[in-house]
């Protein structure tokens, strides 16, 4: 079982690699035209999700839980942020710069 501190080591911002994902299966979310696509992503526990900003302005990926479990820095065009989802649940997230931008990761 991985601790939260250990899990945080898998958090990747702006394309840097801090470690290997818990699962070889990775999923992607594209940020474009003020939208997360897909808006709802269903994955297995231990899967790494990578968001890539294809928009021409900065965006963030911020867990809606309080306190947030994950939060990216502002992502410029082409920047990426990754997070490994440890266990089952619904993880709602948004862009803290544009709060109407929302998405959900469903972990089974």
UniProtKB/TrEMBL annotation:
Residues 7-107 form the EfeO-type cupredoxin-like domain. The keyword Nucleus does not apply. CDD domains: Amicyanin. Residues 1-18 form the signal peptide. Gene3D superfamilies: Cupredoxins - blue copper proteins. Keywords: Electron transport, Periplasm, Signal, Transport. The keyword Signal applies. This is Amicyanin. It comes from Acetobacter fallax. The lineage of its organism: Bacteria, Pseudomonadati, Pseudomonadota, Alphaproteobacteria, Acetobacterales.
């Amino acid at each position: 079982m991985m601790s939260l501190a250990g899990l945080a080591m898998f958090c990747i911002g702006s394309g840097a690699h801090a470690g290997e994902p818990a699962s070889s299966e990775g999923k992607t979310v594209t940020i474009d035209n003020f939208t997360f696509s897909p808006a709802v992503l269903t994955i297995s526990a231990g899967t790494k999700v990578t968001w890539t900003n294809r928009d021409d302005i900065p965006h963030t990926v911020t867990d809606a839980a309080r306190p947030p479990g994950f939060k990216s820095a502002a992502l410029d065009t082409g920047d990426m942020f990754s997070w490994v989802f440890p266990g089952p649940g619904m993880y709602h997230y948004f862009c803290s710069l544009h709060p109407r931008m929302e998405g959900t990761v469903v972990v089974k």
